[in-house]
Design a protein that fits this description.
The complex is a heterodimer of chains A (about 110) and B (about 240). Chain A is mostly helical. Chain A is built from 4 helices and no strands. Chain B has helices at about 5-20, 20-40, 45-55, 55-70, 75-85, 85-100, 105-115, 115-125, 135-160, 165-185, 190-210, 215-230, 235-239. Classes of the chains: A mainly alpha (about 110), B mainly alpha (about 240).
Chain lengths: ~110, ~240
């Protein structure tokens, strides 16, 4: 692709993402933060983010797809075990999960 | 419970909190993006700018992957936008948790642009411990710090892409979703917990039947159900 097209892609994607943020700013000024509507929108955002993370781990379209589902699930389980085992220490959980994934990948291919 | 306040202490907390893990997560994650962007044909300036301006990994990945497969300009932009649609509800839920003061439109736009899953999840977790008038400062410092790390990571990844062994690279890519999963497991309220669980339950079906808009469908159905369930006393006791 030409340089101009690639620039158009980057700027177009930036603008198209910005629209959602702008929409959020416009809407947030209009709704009551103590009301039911706000609580519902918060729930929608949690569900979207949870769905996104679940998709990234369980049904990845990234290179993680090369790793078997069993290995990915085992690594997540190890991460949560370490996280709660070390009194909710994020670093412990993330390191344990990520290192165990790397080790399992190099062992089982 | 006393809340943390004072410009110096909040600034320090934001820097320490960001450097303690999130900045590292973004550095490594964006290394992955940088190397993918290079193989898709983007220049280093374009890649760094994409990180700063799009500032949402799923959309950035959609952009590079569809560019690699040679899709039409409009299709790429559309896919990137859909992958980042979560920013709409995220901004709406985030701003009032941070500030209830009258804030200028321009400032709100800046806050919205700085927001990412990382800062959103970490701030929602930290805000209860921070005095209300200092939350904006905490967020801006935290978000700027991790965005800087992300831009540096993008450039590192761009230039050193093919050096890392595969097993290590996969472990690095895995850091990001894992981190979000752990951070979100600490969400307190019943409706929000129900929404998290339902989001995970709905997304496989939505992905199968409505690829492309799967996250929108997931958010609307999972979030609405979670909201309703959160109002029932049985679920409040259970979660």
């Amino acid at each position: 692709m030409s340089n101009e097209t690639l620039w158009l892609i980057v700027l177009g994607c930036a603008a198209a993402t910005f629209i959602w943020r702008l929409l959020g700013v416009v809407v947030v000024k209009k709704i009551n933060p103590d009301g039911a509507l706000f609580e519902w929108v918060t729930c929608v955002s949690y569900a979207m983010v949870a769905g996104l993370i679940f998709r990234m781990i369980i049904m990845p379209e990234s290179r993680l797809a090369e790793v078997s589902l069993l290995v990915r699930c085992a690594a997540v389980a190890i991460a949560f075990a370490a996280y709660f085992g070390f009194r909710r220490m994020l670093l412990a959980g993330v390191l344990a999960g990520s290192v165990s994934l790397s080790v399992m990948v190099s062992w089982f291919g | 419970m006393t809340q943390l306040s004072g410009t110096g202490r909040i600034f320090q907390k934001a820097i320490v909190d960001s450097l303690s893990l999130p900045a590292f997560i973004l550095l490594t994650t964006m290394m992955g993006f940088g190397s993918l962007a290079r193989s898709a044909g983007f220049s280093p300036e374009m890649s760094a700018l994409a990180t700063a301006l799009i500032w949402g990994l799923p959309g950035q990945l959609a952009m590079v992957e569809l560019t690699t497969t040679g899709q039409a300009l409009f299709a790429i932009i559309f896919a990137c936008s859909l992958a980042n649609a979560r920013f709409f509800p995220m901004v709406v839920s985030f701003i009032p948790s941070m500030t209830r003061d009258k804030t200028s439109f321009f400032k709100l736009i800046v806050f919205a642009q700085l927001l990412s899953i990382n800062s959103w999840a970490m701030c929602m977790r930290q805000f209860p411990d921070i005095a209300a008038e200092f939350r904006k400062l905490y967020f801006v410092v935290f978000a700027t710090s991790i965005m800087s790390a992300a831009i540096i990571g993008t450039l590192i990844g761009y230039y050193i892409s093919a050096i890392l062994p595969d097993a290590l690279l996969l472990g690095l890519i895995f850091l990001s979703p894992l981190f979000f999963a752990l951070v979100l497991s600490a969400v307190a309220r019943a409706g929000e917990r129900a929404s998290l669980i339902l989001g995970c339950a709905v997304v496989p079906l939505a992905h199968l039947y409505f690829p492309g808009v799967d996250l929108l469908i997931t958010g609307l159905t999972g979030g609405s159900l979670g909201y309703l369930l959160g109002r029932t006393s049985a679920v409040q006791r259970l979660l």
